[in-house]
Amino acid sequence: MKIAVLPGDGIGTEIVAEAVKVLNALDLKFEMETALVGGAAYDAHGHPLPEATLNLAKASDAILFGAVGDWKYDTLDRPLRPEQAILGLRKNLGLFANFRPAICYKELVNASSLKPELIAGLDILIIRELTGDIYFGQPRGRRVSPDGAFAGAEEAFDTMRYTRPEIERIARVAFEAARKRSKRVTSVDKANVLETFQFWKDIVTEVHKDYPDVALDHMYVDNAAMQLVKEPKRFDVVVTGNMFGDILSDEASMLTGSIGMLPSASLNASNQGLYEPSHGSAPDIAGKGVANPLATILSAAMMLRFSLNQEAAAVRIEDAVKKVLALGLRTGDIYSEGTTQVGTAQMGDAVVKALSAQH
Ligand code: IPM
Ligand code: MG
Fold first, then answer.
1. Reading across the β-sheet that carries 215-220, which strands appear in turn?
2. Reported pTM
3. How far apart are CA 335 and CA 108, in angstroms?
4. Is residue 174 located within the same domain as residue 299?
5. Is 177 contained in some domain?
6. Same domain, 119 and 218
7. Per-residue pLDDT at 155
8. Are 219 and 274 within one domain?
9. What is the pLDDT of residues 27-59, one digit of tens each?
10. 147 an active-site residue?
11. Would the CA dihedral through 290, 104, 295, 230 be positive or negative?
């Protein structure tokens, strides 16, 4: 089981270190190799996704990824920005299926900004298409200099595009996932305005014919954004495009109290996957040892489940995380009165301890 460890920028190094600690506490053998990615790679090698990092990722069964980005790179030309590293990994490895669960742990029900009764027991799975849409269309216009000049251009645009096979395969992923859950899929589009998303809606409807046991409904993205805060528990599996999925998954994550709790998996057709927390590099708290490592630790659990075929170990990690929450340990982002505040490394240690107590 070969794992590429790509911590990246900001809090990435701190949280990935805790996930590695947890993986090493299992009685399994991994071959782990670490490489630079994002701003860290740009600083060292002049490129956010160096050839060596990409090759390591390609040669691994799974990638454990921290986060990339920092405001200090905002003035770089786009191809050199840290975000290009994650986009490049997704595209080069064909990681088209992004699983972003939004689960509300019962201990954290008061950490949400919504009323407890709206989110208690919440368990949504957002499936975001990850290698198409306006993210990978043809851009026009490029900011070429650090002062923001577009070399005199009078317009800039990006093109939204989906192909039939791209939509078909993500629809299948969603229907298959729903079969293992409550057999409901909501497909989110903007078919009332955008041709690309009428196409999306029609093809999802077509693919649905192969899954008569799964209920499908369609929702416009603006309404979906509203329903997510009004009545989040009406959703089970949500499938949508790259851009809408980016936005809705951030929204859904915050329903649960903290984005610091949520893992994600990005898979290709052969189940090779990249696993990362749903949150970003949080440069404002980087290096302080206060970041919540649980999203990354839970991402490692998803990695064991989806790419390394180690379901039992995945469940062990998830149980250990629940145990630690039940013990009242909290990083700052999920702290509430009556609980015990701990730092990043203490949280990782507590998960390791909970794992060893399972035997
Ligand atoms: C995410 C992030 C990325 C995205 C950025 C960092 C490129 O926001 O994974 O959701 O937009 O996909
Ligand atoms: Mg995002």
1. 31-34, 2-8, 62-67, 273-277, 263-267, 97-103, 123-129, 237-240, 184-189, 215-220
2. 0.94
3. 9
4. no
5. yes
6. yes
7. 81
8. no
9. 999 999 999 999 999 999 999 999 999 999 999
10. no
11. negative
The domain that contains 109 carries what CATH number? 3.40.718.10
Domain end: 216, 238, 262, which one? 262
* Tens-digit pLDDT profile for residues 251-260: 998 898 788 8
Q: What's residue 146's pLDDT?
A: 58
233 and 288 part of one domain: no
Identify whether residues 37 and 129 lie together within a single domain. Answer: no
Residue 152 lies in a domain: no
On whether the CB atoms of residues 21 and 320 are closer than 8 A, the answer is: no
3-state SS class at 177:
helix
Q: Total domain count for the chain?
A: 2
Q: Is 67 in the pocket of ligand 1 (CB under 6 A)?
A: no
Going by alpha carbons, the residue nearest to atom 8 of ligand 1 is 246
Tell whether the torsion through CA atoms of 189, 192, 195 and 201 is positive or negative: positive
| Domain containing residue 297 | 1-96+268-359
Evaluate whether residue 150 is within a structural domain. no
Residue 227 belongs to a domain: yes
DSSP annotation of 142 reads -
State which of 49, 74, 81, 83 you would mutate to test the pocket of ligand 1, scoring each by most atoms of that ligand within 8 A of its C-beta.
Answer: 83
Q: Which of 86, 96, 129 to mutate to test the pocket of ligand 1 (most atoms within 8 A of CB)?
A: 86
Residues 54-70: what's their mean pLDDT?
97
Q: Which residues contact 115 (CB under 8 A, 6 or more apart)?
A: none
What tens digit of pLDDT does each residue of 216-251 get? 999 999 999 999 999 999 999 999 999 999 999 999
Inter-residue contact 151 to 259 (CB < 8 Å): no
Evaluate if residue 358 carries a pLDDT over 70.
Answer: yes
CA 215/CA 183 separation, integer angstroms: 6
Let me know: does 45 contact 53? Beta carbons within 8 Å: no
How far apart (Å, rounded) are the C-alpha atoms in residues 133 and 124? Answer: 23
